[in-house]
Design goal:
Chain B is α+β, with helices and mostly antiparallel strands and 143 residues long. Chain B is built from one helix and eleven strands, in the order H-E-E-E-E-E-E-E-E-E-E-E. Chain C is an alpha+beta fold and 469 residues long. The chains are: A mainly alpha (410), B alpha+beta (143), C alpha+beta (469).
Chain lengths: 410, 143, 469
């Protein structure tokens, strides 16, 4: 047991990387450039060193990083196949991301006062929103990007994490807070204010995630059915109002139900995505033989469709299974964690990954309306990668965290 | 040439990815199995009969007994019961020549073994029920 | 296990359920919907497949090339030999406006795309296909030309078929369009209110008028319940509505044979009410009403009212008025079935698919689509149809030295101008060709306008076509 089977996944990962990278080398035979070599070698080294290093220094969960390594490898290879420029940029982001992963892991593991900063989280979230409104630029219909010194990032990605910490601090100290009988309503109000701001920014996907995380945590930790009922009713009301008042919501729903009449304009994205998936059949067309470039945002929101086209529906299902595994491990980490605060954080982060993956994959295959979200670890994008690794590092820390017990009962 | 490779590789990739996934699942499963059995030599353990969410303080549902084990309110015990009616060192279970014995450590409120009060030392048989304070523990001994 | 843990697990399971839903939908999508979605004409990938392959040619019954592709200045050009003649049969294949006709329905043969299985895919790689398959048609170009000539100046359709094999010998629909200048004239063609793009022979649904009396008669023969003596007084009132004959003085005392041959409305209106809705509908549906006819081109489904109708409507149905819509192809198939002693053959235009190396990839032969019930006396039906041409409304279809059988129809419709129909076959003893002629909104009678055209068609066919038996 133990060591032998443990080596198998990482070796398989290497095999996968080497085969697919060599394929892309041959694909680019006519214009091999520095990017190709750098990305290829870079990926293999990155995976090897980060996994070994983690194994050495962490006694916590070692599955989540392994699963994520497979994810970002598939993603990087697909992105690289689409464009070698984006490929090397993605590698850079992965490098930074993994650095952030280790940093956040250390911080969580070694700093004790995370559960005492509820106001900091509150402030950070509002601060980030304010920044977006003031400095933000509209990109593809949503004002959720900020450009600083040539680098653009999405503050909402960090706000998600602030939300999780905020809710964790609240529910950890719920006995203290529930002395004030309005506290639950206040929290609900705060969360809905975030969601409202996101609506105004037209970032419907993130709004959905915020709602999902809040509802999930509320379901587990809130004592009192009426809050949950209020939450769901508000959501229903808000959703319907949103549909009636906002055209862009209406368009999303219509093109979800039947995109074919709008195939050349509003329904263009989703239909191209469906064509790609249909083309891929079970095993795909083969790397380099499909046409993912026909899909808009093939490296970003629709990376899943590109993967399904060239690597098949089976690989698509494989990616979904990887996310199920990741979420499972996250929840398991939560169950094993004795300290309530870190438990909630672990649940929140797992929920975040799971919901995000579900929403964007669901949108790309037309199970739910399309929203502008990225697939964690797989899509191209600095903010997406860095924030996902940030969250992963926190999760990794939570898997090991042992808080010094004082003689207090739980 | 590239096309042929790509077509062959696509089947290979799917196989690799699925073997990867299933290996991880298997690894996790093995991990869980190990935790459940705790260590190789699972011979004897105590099972807490009270539903865990009726107990106002934290307890496990199972405690493995290796050679010996103490139960009491103090945190140096293997089984910690934070009940004021339980003495700091309440009782002890030990292994002697293949049999397990239970000994009350002069506790203030005593220990009940199978509905009768435990006086000093008694031998434990699999299925015996030990009452300490409000907690009921069943002793299970395999083989 | 405490409440918190339980809830955590519940939450996890709900999330899992969501993912399982995704996996399920992906599988469903791949198994059931992927093929259809892929074939959507807005899918640019299809064009790439096509660009790599030299599209196959189409040849006629005598192996004359009707359309072929050639490389010209780096791109592939499709050359149609005839501008108008085959526009509804072969159709067109364009990037801008999609495909129609055989170019559409036999697309995968023409570009030789069979990459469905893994083996095929690998084979295709090792031995790449550069050229598509060719199609050989059952159509006789001379007869096709003749058909178009006969229909000139009118709107409508002519189809000629071999009733014993199902081969379509000619099929013309007017108005038509010039396929070689399609792209330049698209706006004009697609917006023309006369709909030149529609193949009226297979896609048009028209009130069949008296040609539907064939169905009514068959139904009566099946029930063995006809009125041998009926007094036709030129009109009859059924449930408040008055049905009239053309000749309003009435046919006098007649039986089924004479009523059919003279196309007596009052007789058949009354007959329909005796037969009843269920039986009449059953007969119509056994003859492919309310069912899709499997064919090489897209067809419309002929309509017979699906739910019970009142007595007046029933009577109207008996004489082919009311809410019945028949395609010329359907009426032709019914006629051919009678000619072929009860076996309705499946119609087809593509005789075989030939590989670039001249091997037969696939051969299509006659198959029976459905058979009229044995218990029905078809000889009587044939005799009735012969009588139509000898003595009845269809005398204009007479051919010297050859016995012809048929039925005329003059259908009233919403436009106010009658459709003129004729269905028939010849020779009576050994039918070689069956024909349907439909003149849309012509204002004339079936016997007057459609029958002569059918006659000329049959003469030409019998004289010029080599029938394969």
């Amino acid at each position: 047991m133990g060591t032998n089977i443990g080596k198998i996944p990482i070796r398989l990962l290497f095999l996968f990387e080497i085969l697919s990278l060599s394929l892309i080398f041959i694909y680019r035979w006519d214009n091999l450039d520095f990017n190709t070599f750098a990305t290829g070698i870079g990926l293999v080294l990155l995976v090897y060193f980060s996994n070994s290093f983690l194994r050495k220094i962490s006694s916590g969960d070692h599955y989540i990083f392994l699963i994520v390594s497979m994810m970002f490898s598939i993603g990087l290879i697909m992105i690289f196949r689409i464009s070698s420029d984006l490929g090397i940029k993605q590698l850079l982001w992965l490098l930074i991301g993994i650095g952030v992963f280790f940093a956040s892991y250390f911080l969580v593991k070694n700093i004790e006062f995370w559960d005492k900063m509820i106001l900091v989280y509150l402030g950070t979230a509002y601060g980030l929103f304010a920044m977006t409104f003031i400095l933000g630029a509209r990109l593809r219909g949503a004002i959720n990007w900020i450009s600083i010194g040539g680098v653009s990032f999405q503050p909402a990605e960090v706000t998600k994490i602030a939300l999780i910490f905020f809710l964790a601090s609240y529910y950890y100290n719920i006995e203290k807070y529930s002395k004030n009988k309005y506290s639950e309503w206040i929290v609900m109000g705060i969360v809905y204010s975030y969601i409202g701001l996101l609506f105004l920014q037209r970032d419907l996907g993130t709004a959905l995630i915020f709602f999902g995380i809040y509802t999930g945590l509320q379901y587990i930790y809130c004592n009192g059915r009426r809050y949950e009922i209020a939450n769901l009713s508000l959501a229903l009301l808000g959703g319907s109002l949103g549909y009636i008042l906002f055209d862009h919501v209406k368009i999303r729903v219509l093109t979800w139900l039947n995109p074919w009449p709008y195939i050349n304009d509003k329904g263009y994205q989703i239909t191209q995505s469906l064509f790609a998936i249909a083309e891929g059949s079970y095993f795909g067309t083969g790397l380099g033989r499909g046409n993912p470039s026909f899909i808009p945002l093939s490296y970003n929101d629709f990376i899943f469709s590109s993967i399904s086209e060239e690597m098949g529906v089976f690989t698509g299902i494989g990616v979904i299974m990887l996310f199920v595994l990741l979420v499972y491990r996250g929840f398991k980490i939560a169950l094993l964690q004795n300290h309530k605060f870190y438990r909630i954080v672990a649940i929140g982060i797992s929920l975040m990954f799971g919901l995000q993956a579900f929403i964007i994959i669901g949108g790309a295959i037309k199970v739910i309306p399309l929203t502008g979200l990225t697939l964690p670890f797989i899509s191209y994008g600095g903010s997406s990668i860095v924030s996902s690794f940030l969250a992963l590092g926190i999760l990794q820390g939570a898997s090991e965290k042992v808080v010094k017990e004082d003689e207090t009962y739980e | 040439m590239f096309d042929i490779l790509s077509v062959i590789f696509k089947y290979v990739f799917v196989i690799i990815i699925y073997v990867f996934i299933f290996t991880i699942i298997r690894m996790i499963y093995l991990d869980i199995k190990t935790i459940k059995t705790i260590s190789g030599d699972l011979k004897a353990y105590l099972k807490v009969l009270n539903p865990l969410d009726t107990i106002p303080y934290k307890m496990e549902d199972t405690y493995v007994i290796e050679d010996n084990l103490t139960i009491g309110r103090g945190s140096d015990n293997l089984v910690v019961i934070r009940d004021p009616y339980v003495s700091k060192h309440h009782l002890k279970i030990l292994l002697d020549e293949g049999n397990y014995f239970i000994e009350d450590l002069k506790s203030s409120n005593g220990t009940i073994l199978n509905n009768s009060k435990l006086e000093d030392v008694s031998i434990l048989k699999s299925g015996d029920i030990i009452k300490v304070g409000d907690i009921d523990l069943m002793f299970i001994h395999k083989g | 296990m405490n409440r918190e843990s339980k809830r955590i697990i519940t939450l996890f399971i709900s999330l899992c359920a969501g993912f399982i839903l995704l996996i399920g939908y992906l599988s469903y999508f791949q198994i059931f919907k992927a093929e259809t979605i892929r074939e959507n004409q807005y899918n640019k990938r299809l064009w790439i497949d096509e660009e790599e392959v030299l599209r196959g040619s189409i040849i006629d019954r005598d192996e004359e090339v009707l359309v072929y592709s050639q490389e010209k200045n780096g791109s592939i050009e499709r050359v149609y030999k005839y501008d108008y003649l085959y526009s509804h049969i072969i159709g067109y294949s364009t990037r801008e406006y999609g495909k129609s006709g055989l170019e559409k329905n036999f697309n995968s043969y023409l570009i030789n795309a069979n990459r469905n299985t893994a083996i095929n895919e690998v084979i295709n790689l090792i031995n790449p296909v550069g050229v598509g398959n060719n199609l050989k048609l059952t159509i006789d170009t001379d007869l096709q030309r003749k058909s178009r000539e006969l229909l000139r100046g009118k709107k409508g359709a002519i189809i000629a078929m071999d009733p014993k094999t199902g081969e379509i010998l000619s099929m013309v629909s007017l108005p038509d369009y010039n396929v070689n200048s399609l792209i330049d004239n698209w706006a004009q063609i697609s917006e023309d209110t006369n709909s030149p793009l529609i193949n009226r022979g297979v896609q048009g649904l028209y009130t069949p008028g008296s040609t539907f009396k064939i169905v009514t008669a068959l139904s009566s023969l099946e029930l063995k319940d006809e009125e041998s003596v009926f007094n036709c007084q030129g009109s009859i009132e059924i449930d408040g509505y008055i049905f009239k004959d053309f000749n309003s003085s009435g046919h006098g005392s007649i039986g089924l044979l004479e009523a059919f041959s003279k196309s007596c409305n009052t007789y058949f209106a009354s007959l329909a009410t005796h037969i009843g809705y269920d039986e009449l509908k059953a007969m119509a549906e056994s003859l492919y009403f309310n069912q899709r006819i499997p064919f090489d081109l897209d067809t419309s489904i002929s309509r017979f009212p699906e739910t019970q109708v009142g007595l007046t409507d029933l009577a109207a149905s008996g004489i082919g008025q009311g809410r019945i819509g028949a395609s010329p192809l359907n009426m032709l198939l019914i006629t051919s079935a009678i000619a072929n002693d009860g076996d309705m053959m499946k119609p087809y235009i593509v005789e075989k698919v030939i590989s670039p190396q001249s091997n037969d990839v696939e051969i299509f032969t006659g198959e029976i689509l459905t058979s009229i019930d044995d218990s029905i006396d078809l000889v009587r039906m044939q005799e009735m149809m012969r009588e139509v041409v000898i003595n009845g409304t269809g005398t204009n279809a007479r051919i010297r030295n050859v016995q012809v059988a048929g039925k005329t129809g003059t259908a009233e419709n919403a436009s106010g101008k009658n459709h003129a129909w004729f269905v028939g076959y010849a020779p009576y003893d050994d039918p070689k060709v069956a024909v349907v002629v439909l003149l849309e909104e012509d204002g004339s009678s079936g016997g007057g306008a459609a029958a002569p055209i059918a006659r000329d068609m049959m003469i030409y066919a019998l004289n010029n076509i080599k029938f394969r038996r």
